[in-house]
Amino acid sequence: MANDITGKQAAESTAAQGGKTTIEDAVVAKIAGIAARDVPGVYALGGGAARVVGAIRDALNSTDLAQGIGVEVGEKQVAVDVTLVAEYPVSLQELAGAVRASVYRAMQELVGLEVTEVNVTINDVHIPSEDEGDDGQEARVQ
């Protein structure tokens, strides 16, 4: 099966039986997002503003699996940019390598395109006590 991408919009492949398969950029980004989220040590994907919008979507049960993911699809290749928040205390270099490997594998196995690069940007570190909301004081009311 030969892979062929037309423009920046879609990946297309022609099957031996004839016909055309189109994979939209949004689908490629979603697959990359799922692959990145599956890596232990990834707390969230996206930058600050994207995470705020993501929290609102989560509250509405409408998670954007492509949040924090950028893709550039060519004729036979794909490049992926991943922006994430790491859990503390995880090795950031090891995390970036694991995310890169997971996304690379997903692009080759599920999308069927050659991966030119997977760039990983770690823009924050999540410290578990930040979200607990416990300031050490007893509740004033029960």
From TrEMBL:
Species, as recorded: Microbacterium azadirachtae
The protein, known as: Alkaline shock protein 23
Alphabetical list of InterPro entries matching this protein: Asp23 (IPR005531)
Top-level taxon of the source organism: Bacteria
Family: Belongs to the asp23 family.
